[in-house]
Every structure is written in C-alpha cells, then in structure tokens.
Specification:
This protein is α/β, with parallel strands linked by helices. It has eleven helices and 18 strands. Strands 1, 2, 8, 9, 10, 11, 17 and 18 form an eight-stranded mixed beta sheet that branches. Bound molecules: flavin-adenine dinucleotide.
Length: about 425
C-alpha cells in the first residue's frame, strides 16, 4: 500500500486525485483463520493491529455486522485522558494516551490527535476532595495532572461562568496532555493498516452463533456462512451480552444508551475540553467549530442507539449554568450509542469459560480513549493465551472475588 505523505498529497493534486488507492480491501471470508475478532470498532481493530505488529499474527479476520467504526467508535465525543484513580486503570489508560501521541505515525494516517488539555470541574466540596485524592494518586502513578483553582480555570477557559448560582466552580483536575482525536480516523487508520498486513475486514457480516467442540471454540456462524478459527475475540461493546449468550456464558454488565449532540459551528471560543460531572455535562469545540456536548446515560436498558429526549434537555440545562453563552446556540444534531457498563465502571479484558474465546468489553461511557492500549493488551492476551500485565486485573473473576476496580468517580458520568 502506498504511504500517505505531504509528497503524495502534492503529487495527487497534480493528477486530479486519480491515483489514490482504496484504503482497505473488501474481501470475502476465507474458510478459516488463526484468529477471528468480532466487532470492527476501535477496540477490535486495534486488537487486530497489535496482533500483527507485536506478535506477527496476520491470518486474522475482523467481522463486522454493519460498517467499520459505525458503533460507539464513530458516535463518541472523543475525549482522551488518563486521570483515573486506581493503579490498574491509570496504567492502561496512560499507556493508551501515550500511544495516541504517536498513532498517526504508527498507522500512517492522520488521526488528528489534539492534546489540548482536559479539565474536570470540581463544583462541590466533595468533588474537590475527590480530585485532590486523584491528583495525588496520579502523581504516584506517573500521570501528569494538577488540581487548579477557579481563577486558573477561568484563564484556561474564559467562557466558563465560575460563579454559578447552584454550583460555583471551586477548581478542577487538569490534565494538560489529555485532549481529543478524530474518532472515524482512528477506526479508518487501524483498518487500513490491518488490511495492509493482509488481514480481512469483513463488513455487513453479522455473527449469529459461536461454534464449539469439547469446550473449545471452533468458529462462528455468520450471515456470510460458517467461518472457522483457532481463537476468537469478542469485542462488541453494547452487544457483548448478546455475543456472550451465543458463546454460553453471562456477563456482569448492562447495556444502556448514551447520547451526544453538536451545535451549529461558531468561531473558536474554547480550546480545552471541560467536563462538569456534578451537573452531568461536558463540552469541547470541534475543528469545524461545532460545540460537542454530552451528558449521562439513560436510566434503563435498551439497544436502540437513540436515547431519551429528557436527557438532552437535562444536559443542556445543566451546561447553560456553567456556559451561559450556549443558550444562544442552535443545536444541529443528536445521536446515541449503546454502551456496556459494569458495576465498578471498569472494563473486562479476559479469558471466558469457553476455551480460546477471549472478551474485551465494559468500557461503558469512556472507552474511546482506551482504544490503542486496550488493543495492545487484548492482542497480548490472545497471542499468549493469558492476560499480560496491563490486563491482569481486569478479568471477570473480580466480580466473583470482590476485587472491584472502583472508578465510579472517574467514569460514572465522565467519558
Ligand atoms: C455518545 C457517546 C459518547 C462517548 N464519549 C466518549 C468520550 O468522549 N471518550 C471516551 O473515551 N469514550 C466515549 N464513549 C465511549 C466509547 O465510544 C466506547 O467505549 C468505545 O467506542 C467502544 O469501542 P468498541 O470498539 O468496543 O465498540 P464499537 O465501536 O461499538 O464496536 C463494536 C462493533 O461490534 C459490532 N457488532 C455487534 N454485534 C455484532 C455481531 N453479532 N456480529 C458482528 N459485529 C457485531 C457493532 O456493529 C460495532 O461496530 C462515548 C460513547 C457514546 C455512545
């Protein structure tokens, strides 16, 4: 595959852009593969990418029932940060954040990583205490965050009203190297790199059953026929419970809708990401100028990828208190995704009761930021048959054993 470069852009400009190749192949499935990954979202594609890059395993198919990146990976608000409280979380999220720094070079695709800084506002004294604790934990973990006062918040983000009537801003946990990236580009970049390594990305192909023999996985049944495999990775976010049922086990998680919305584009007015978790809202400005807004999850389970209207109203109402200027904006569009939420708000990366079947799920409202690191850890587990150091604590046995990785402060609402 030809490399993308400034030179290639200049060359194609002179050729009326007639020389670009397809970014990835669109193959028919082979009879069998060494590894099948179900789900061509960011986590599935990153897993395939690192299987090839780190472990030399390229006889891999990524099977997607819709189009690649059409799940939560293409629906999120793209916040990237690693300011989590518990050590295993900080390790995997910081690994991921650091991989984002070089991803454009690693996959030869501009993913528009923008480390513009992320602040999580403290709007109650309880939050101040919570974030000071996280700041200390982050310092011990080697994650660069600081707790800043309200004046610094105002300096970094002049459109904030720090003297709100209900919830004045008392400070914020600030991560200067947090930020955003272009979500579709993350999926497209990995897909192109995987295809280049000879892997098959099979779209419009739904997995309908998991085949097994003697307690070991042997393949999958799909809408394009049966496909055999030696190892299977289930990486389907909001549909993890459905796939687990096909494989014969249950998962300790719930699937709920999470929504986001964007405003009409306006001139640049905010060059940081702000999360206001007390009032359930967060906002950043996209490169096109739209204000990208999100809130909390719906309070009931569903698979409809829409979400309820009252949640939008609640989110916008909450944000207007902190950003009064958005009351004058028109909202352009709204969408939803189905997120898979565990009881301790931490993901599951582990083996399953079915032999050679592995699972990666439970990223809930905050898995976009984890894509490269999660793929790294899941690829290592699939290649070696056992979770490596990054994934070791995230097995689902922790729910039986009471070893929770409690991230309800960092991930209950926050993304
Ligand atoms: C509105 C919203 C805002 C968010 N904001 C943020 C944020 O700011 N920062 C952040 O870090 N995270 C955020 N998230 C969470 C983040 O988007 C997810 O955690 C992450 O994208 C999950 O990626 P994934 O690859 O696991 O899942 P997905 O991208 O959903 O991929 C799973 C794929 O599996 C496919 N699939 C399902 N069933 C089958 C089947 N039977 N056969 C074949 N394929 C199947 C689906 O079609 C889908 O494409 C947000 C989520 C939403 C919905």
């Amino acid at each position: 595959m030809k490399r993308y470069s400034a030179f290639a852009v200049a060359r194609e400009a002179f050729r009326h852009h007639a020389g670009w190749e397809r970014a990835w192949r669109n193959p028919e499935p082979k009879k069998s593969y060494d590894v099948i990954i179900i789900g061509a979202g960011g986590h599935g594609l990153a897993t395939a990418f690192w299987l090839g890059k780190n472990h030399g395993i390229t006889n891999v198919a990524v099977i997607e029932r819709g189009w690649l990146g059409g799940g939560n990976t293409g629906r999120n608000t793209t916040i990237i940060r690693s300011n989590y409280l518990q050590d295993p979380s900080a390790a995997i999220y910081e690994k991921s954040r650091s991989l984002y720094e070089t991803m454009s070079q690693d996959v030869n695709y501009n993913i528009m990583f923008s480390p513009r800084g992320v602040m999580m506002l403290a709007q109650t004294h309880h939050e101040v205490r919570g974030y000071l604790r996280t700041e200390h934990a982050n310092n011990l973990q080697g994650v660069a965050t600081t707790f800043i006062g309200p004046e610094k918040v105002k300096e970094l983000c002049p459109i904030i009203n720090i003297d709100g009537p209900r919830y004045p801003v008392l400070g914020a946990l600030w991560q200067p190297r947090g930020g955003t990236a272009r979500h579709d580009a993350v999926a497209w970049g990995y897909a192109r790199a995987c295809s280049d390594m000879g892997m098959d990305i099979i779209q419009q192909c739904e997995v309908t059953a998991v085949r097994q023999e003697g307690g070991q996985v042997t393949g999958v049944e799909t809408t394009k026929g049966e496909i055999g495999c030696n190892k299977l990775g289930i990486v389907v976010a909001g549909h993890s419970g459905v796939l687990a049922e096909m494989a014969g086990f249950r998962l300790p998680l719930e699937s709920v809708a999470l929504q986001a919305l964007v405003s009409e584009p306006i001139k640049p007015c905010m060059d940081v990401v702000v999360m206001a978790n007390t009032v359930h809202g967060y906002m950043s400005q996209s490169d096109k100028g739209e204000m990208v807004i999100g809130g909390g999850t719906d309070g009931y389970n569903n698979y409809t990828q829409r979400g309820s209207f009252h949640h939008i109203e609640e989110t916008v109402r909450a944000l207007i208190e902190t950003f009064p200027m958005i009351s004058r904006l028109k909202m352009l569009r709204q969408w939803g995704g189905i997120v898979d939420v565990t009881g301790d708000r931490s993901p599951i990366i582990g083996k399953t009761p079915l032999g050679n079947c592995f699972i990666n799920c439970g990223w809930g409202t905050g898995g976009f930021k984890a894509i490269p690191g999660s793929g790294w850890a899941t690829a290592e587990m699939i290649a070696k048959g056992e979770p490596g150091p990054l994934a070791a604590e995230f097995g689902m046995d922790r729910f039986k054993e009471g070893r929770f990785i409690d991230e309800s402060v960092a991930a209950g609402v926050a993304h």
